[in-house]
Amino acid sequence: MKCENCTKKECSKKQKNDDTQSTSVDALSSNDGSEEKNEFDTLANAKILLSDCLACDSCMTLEEGARVFQQNQKEFFRILNLNKKCDTSKHKVLAVSLCPQSLPYFAAKFNLSVNEAAKRLCGFLKSLGVHYVFDTTIAADFSILESQREFVQRYQRRNQEEHALPMFASACPGWIRYAERVLTNLVTSHICTAKSPQQIMGSLVKGYFARQQNLSPDKIFHVVVAPCYDKKLEALREDFYTALYNSAEVDCVLTSGEIVQIMEQKNVSMKDVPEVAVDSLFDDLKEGDVVRHDGKRSDGYLEHIFKHAAKELFGVDVKEITYKALKNKDFQEVTLEKDGETVLRFAAAYGFRNIQNMVLKLKKGKFFYHFVEVLACPGGCLNGKGQAQTEDGKPDRALLAQMEEVYTAIPVRLPEANLHVQRMYQDWLEGMDSKKVQDTLHTTYSAVNQSTSSLDIKW
């Protein structure tokens, strides 16, 4: 989450200085020195410099800061080492879920096809002691389907409910954190209630998969590999924690760059790792070739919701979407016209410059969009600050261009075409309109009163 052009009233993030005062996870991690030395010790103590803003200093409390610092390689290897000890009662089933926007980074960086990258990454993780490696695309299927349904419902209620429209996408934790901590309920009431793919994957692993394996959720340690640091904060949300089992849906988030750091510490190249098929949530099945959703750099909420709404609300089959760039390439709109009237107006707003302009128009009552796909990172999820960065913290534009090429070439699969998802709605979630769907796939967002105790860190 990078604050651009912030005003003092909205954000107290300090300007970045070109110095060496970035705080490392290792320096701020609690360690009483009593830990037993093990084969993972060097790796676990690898320093991670967070060169970009994870959250404004007014957005993160001391407690949250301490918990974020625990989400690093040290915690990951603590579990791996625990599993090597003889006390099986303390062993954990270690599951890693891979975000689709991370795979092009590994493919481009190591000059592999995206399918090779997925299999070699799976092989590397399993060589460390990971039991299962999953693809989060199925979780994005659920998130998109629920977002589509919610938009249609909001559109149909738009004349009865003041905050029904516009609807803002809820998949980006940087945007959500900014909305809840800095903006007001005027904005948060417009956010789609569907969980992000990361957190739905948490529900799938700690719920569906745990039941299939006859495991208690607290016996699974769930790691997500993601393109940005904000995903670490998302995993800490109280609504993504089950008190009954003392278990979070996602126990640890590692960025793509942090995985590469582990490889470097182990002196392992992706090309040296054997290919291992990615696991499926279903029995002993394995995943096939990598697929993605519509959208050039993200999970494509705008495109999927637009096409679905056009069909459901106006009976129009939209095959191709035409984007119109507005003030800059990260603020674009898409419209649907019927009988000479514009009936749908969607936008994509990436980066805080566009987000702040969008919010300003909303507050002034000059906002005419029905749906906005909001992402905190300029350029979208592929440009997450946890990957494709140079040593000085700048975007690696050459690598990013390769990543975009790789991502665009991945075949698109519609969420509706996933037969596993349709079966799970019936067998696991008790129908598409059930209370369990609401409890499992949705959450709520609201403005949060800030504590006076905050963590002022130069990320």
From TrEMBL:
| Family annotation (Gene3D superfamilies) | 3.40.50.1780, Fe-only Hydrogenase (Larger Subunit), Chain L, domain 3
| InterPro entries in the record | Cytosolic_Fe-S_CAF, Fe_hydrogenase, Fe_hydrogenase_lsu_C, Fe_hydrogenase_ssu
Of the GO CC terms on this record, one is: nucleus
Asked if the Swiss-Prot or TrEMBL record annotates the protein with the keyword Nucleus, the reply is yes
Where does the record place Basic and acidic residues bias? 1-19
Kindly state which keywords UniProt assigns to this record, in alphabetical order: Nucleus, Phosphoprotein
Disordered: where is this region?
Answer: 1-36
Q: Entry's PANTHER family? A: NITRATE, FORMATE, IRON DEHYDROGENASE
Instruction: Fill in the subunit field for this protein.
Output: Interacts with LMNA and binds to the farnesylated C-terminal domain.
Membership in a protein family = Belongs to the NARF family.
Q: Which protein are we looking at?
A: Nuclear prelamin A recognition factor
Q: Which organism is it from?
A: Ploceus nigricollis
Q: What is the lineage of its organism?
A: Eukaryota, Metazoa, Chordata, Craniata, Vertebrata
- Gene (UniProt): Narf
